[in-house]
Write a structure and sequence with these properties.
There is one protein chain. The chain is mainly beta. The protein is built from no helices and eleven strands. The strands form two sheets. Strands 2, 4, 5, 6, 9, 10 and 11 form a seven-stranded mixed sheet that branches. Strands 1-3-8-7 form a four-stranded antiparallel sheet, with no helix packed on it.
């Protein structure tokens, strides 16, 4: 069992920036960030492979968000720049121990462990 703890959410103005952190209680193969706005489904934002740091981003955040990891600290960071009101959502960290899963990388079913979420609000 792996526990994930997110932090770094908050309220910013349109065009602002935030950095989210996700700390894992153990080693994982892959970590992702998802977000869910009220009344909407959970959307994959970005994912990173622990071993080589390979990243994949959703089209909606590519070029604005950067995902990185500090393996020694078992921490993944999501740097969010040029934030827009439509980025407002609860952001969840997710992780999995399995290096290979036959699911799309940004699909909710790809991940076994989930954090409690951190709220991001962007006002216009």
């Amino acid at each position: 069992q792996v526990q994930l703890v997110e932090s770094g959410g908050g309220s910013v103005q349109d065009g602002g920036a935030l950095r989210l952190s996700c700390v894992a209680s153990g080693s994982v193969a892959r970590t992702a960030w998802f977000r869910q706005a009220p009344g909407k489904g959970r959307e994959g934002v970005a994912t990173i492979r622990t071993g080589d740091g390979d990243t994949v981003y959703a089209a909606s955040v590519k070029g604005r968000f950067i995902l990185s990891r500090d393996s020694a600290k078992k921490t993944v960071y999501l740097q969010m720049d040029s934030l827009k009101p439509e980025d407002s959502a609860m952001y969840y960290c997710a992780a999995d121990l399995r290096p290979v899963v036959f699911k799309p990388l940004l699909h909710v079913d790809r991940y076994t462990f989930w954090g409690q979420g951190t709220q991001v609000t962007v006002s216009s």
